[in-house]
Specification:
With 71 residues, this protein is α+β, with helices and mostly antiparallel strands. Helix content is 25%, strand content 37%. The protein has three helices and four strands. Strands 3-2-1-4 form a four-stranded mixed β-sheet.
Length: 71
């Protein structure tokens, strides 16, 4: 599962100028949360959370997240 998140920043295509959003992705069945911060120029992914308030919280299970990742 870590690999699925680690490669997320490589697949990020960028965003409009000024874009800055934080996502928390909680995979309940495995008990882990990742934080993704996406800006105009890139995305940073970390396992665990910072104190940054999320703009979006996504809660799902690992199998669903992997299917979403695959399109």
């Amino acid at each position: 599962m870590d690999e699925a998140f680690r490669t997320l920043s490589e697949r990020y295509l960028g965003a409009d100028p000024g874009f800055d959003a934080t996502y928390h992705i909680k995979l309940g069945d495995i008990g882990h949360t990742w934080e993704v911060r996406a800006t105009t120029h890139g995305a940073r992914v970390r396992k665990g959370l910072t104190r940054r308030e999320p703009d979006v919280v996504i809660g799902t299970d690992a199998a669903t997240w992997l299917r979403l990742r695959q399109g």
